[in-house]
Design brief:
Layout lengths: L9 E5 L5 E3 L14 E5 L6 H11 L17 H4 L16 E2 L2 H7 L5 E4 L9 H14 L5 E4 L3 H13 L3 E6 L5 H9 L3 E5 L3 H15 L2 E2 L5 H17 L7 E5 L4 H15 L8 E7 L4 H7 L25 H10 L3 E5 L1 H13 L6 H15 L9 E5 L7 H10 L17 H9 L1
Parallel strand pairs: 5-13, 6-7, 6-9, 7-8, 10-11, 10-13, 11-12
Antiparallel strand pairs: 1-2, 1-3, 4-5
Bound molecules: ligand F0G.
């Protein structure tokens, strides 16, 4: 099927066969070829300066949806213009941070960190989930589900609870960070610990959703990506619509890489920016099928058995591969693979500045240093690295690094046990 003009406000298109579906079609993939879907919107009937003015005005509203201060729905013309019954915490409005110690470590002057750990459940997933759960309600879903390495499940659990929808989450029985698992239990999702890796969880939940009629809210769901685009839109707005030279982000299932590519393409098409930043997607070396494909000019799609301490991106067969290839190609982007040791060092530097992030997030900072080393990023260029999750998502790895690892890693900050006596404190201070 193809829509004739006039087009509806939004619709879905299959990236595989080009078939089009309505905005409220609940299938998670193309019904004809099983391809990935993408949401398209009719171009807004506003000029780019009118759009920019509207986005700024909404940040100052005192009533209605905008008064809640969502950094997702503020951009709704580019997200889901016809949305109603919005389920919002709110989310977004995350800071752009700068710390001299990170400039020194990466070699970039004025590196900016977009800290998505400031979202309500502590990761960027909330931006996609407010749109995904809103859409679940619009299509009349009676239950929602996802497979996850932990953050998507925490976010789904929270937004489903708010919407009053039962949530089912599938996570690997081993390797989900403590904070994330605890969140999904606390928010009330039915939590299945699957004896397998994330890739097995995703295959299983896709089958379950199509057979059991549960609405799928993995990033295969294109509405999730519409929300995640606002990370980029918000960065652009914070930089007064003057794009940075590079945007660097961790990459696992490749939903975010795809969302970033789409946000930039649309921002350029609709005149919000006049040039595209380059994207750098950063994988952990033990979970780097996309980086391998990139090195081969994307001639082959690779699948691996993933191993990395960054459990959020322990993914061997990324679902949004095709969309992400397009994002990297269109932005003249690169894909990097970084060793776990380097990721952990980057994390220790981010944490040591008082900012903090979870391990996967630090891959982006390690990626910035690698871009500089390779001469791809000039120190004078403007780069923004995305911190995708909060430091407390993974307390286990913090204690392992600082307290338990022998010999202590270079930046380990050992806790010191003492008797309850002043002399003991003096002894420590004299050291
Ligand atoms: N950083 C964090 C903290 C994540 O949780 C994820 C993905 C990524 C980066 C990578 O983003 O998958 O869009 O390439 N976490 C998913 C989850 C897989 O289930 O929470 P991506």
């Amino acid at each position: 099927m193809k829509f004739e003009t006039p087009r509806p406000a939004s619709w879905q298109t299959c990236l595989g066969c080009g078939n089009e579906a309505t905005e409220l079609d609940p299938h998670s993939r193309c019904r004809f070829c099983g391809g990935l879907l993408e949401v398209s919107h009719r171009a807004p009937d506003l000029t780019s300066s009118e759009l920019r003015a509207r986005f700024s005005q909404r940040a100052r509203e005192t009533s209605g949806l905008d008064a809640s201060g969502s950094g997702v729905w503020r951009f709704r013309e580019l997200v889901l213009p016809s949305a109603d019954g919005v389920v919002s915490h709110p989310e977004g409005n995350t800071p752009l941070l700068h710390r001299p110690a990170l400039d020194r470590w990466t070699g970039v002057h004025g590196l900016l960190l977009k800290h998505e750990g400031h979202n309500p459940t502590g990761s960027f997933k909330d931006r996609g989930m407010t749109v995904g759960v809103t859409q679940a309600r619009r299509v009349g879903a009676t239950a929602v589900a996802c497979a996850s390495t932990g953050n998507t499940s925490a976010s789904l659990a929270a937004y489903a609870a708010q919407a009053g929808l039962p949530a089912l989450v599938l996570v690997p029985a081993e390797g989900v960070a403590l904070g994330k698992l605890a969140q999904s239990l606390a928010y009330g999702a039915t939590t299945l610990l699957v004896r397998g890796d994330f890739d097995a969880c995703l295959r299983l939940v896709e089958e379950a959703s199509s057979r059991l009629g549960v609405y799928l809210l993995n990033s295969i769901n294109p509405f999730r990506l519409e929300g995640q685009k606002t990370i980029v839109l918000e960065i652009l707005q914070q930089l007064a619509w003057e794009p940075p030279d590079w945007i660097v982000l961790p990459a696992g299932n490749l939903g975010n890489t795809s969302a970033f590519g789409k946000a930039l393409r649309e921002a350029k098409d609709w005149g919000l920016i006049s040039r595209l930043p380059r994207l750098a997607a950063v994988q952990a070396a033990g979970a780097a099928p996309f980086a391998r494909s990139f090195q081969e000019g994307f001639a082959v799609r690779h699948r691996v058995t993933a191993r990395t301490v960054a459990t959020a991106i322990r993914i061997g067969d990324p679902a949004s591969y095709d969309r992400a290839v397009r994002a990297i190609r269109e932005t003249d982007g690169v894909v990097l693979a970084i060793d776990d040791d380097e990721i952990l060092e980057a994390k220790a530097v981010v944490d040591g500045c008082g900012i903090g992030c979870e391990p996967a997030s630090a891959a982006s900072v390690a990626g910035v240093r690698e871009l500089v080393r390779r001469g791809l990023l000039d120190p004078a260029q403007r780069a923004v690295a995305i911190l995708t999750g909060h430091i407390l998502k993974d307390p286990g790895i913090l204690l392992a690094y600082h307290r338990d690892t022998e010999p202590p890693p270079p930046r380990a900050n050992r806790p010191i046990e003492i008797e309850p006596e002043l002399a003991e404190i003096e002894k420590v201070l004299r050291r």
